[in-house]
Specification:
Helix content: 25-40%
Mean pLDDT: 90
Order of helices and strands: HH
Largest sheet: none
Structural class: mainly alpha
Radius of gyration: 21 Å
Shape: elongated
Length: about 70
């Protein structure tokens, strides 16, 4: 293996994974929800935002639907 490589003559190419990049979003989450995911993420050794993304991806894969029932006043 060489000590140094000359990359000045390399041709650039598009990132094949560019279409799979994550989209930054702003969300308002309750403090207890964020703390819950931060604690779980620390136990698992992953960033909490990645853990939230994995959870939401699992919901997508399982086609989970949210059931919201408003109480009658």
């Amino acid at each position: 293996m060489k000590a140094e490589y000359d990359f000045s003559k390399m041709k650039s190419r598009k990132n094949p994974y560019a279409s799979k990049l994550k989209k930054p979003v702003t969300m308002r989450l309750s403090e207890d929800v964020v703390e819950y995911f931060k604690n779980m993420a620390q136990e698992a050794g992953v960033p909490y935002q990645s853990l939230i993304n994995l959870y939401l991806r699992d919901c997508l894969a399982q086609n989970r639907k949210v059931e919201i029932k408003w109480s009658a006043r």
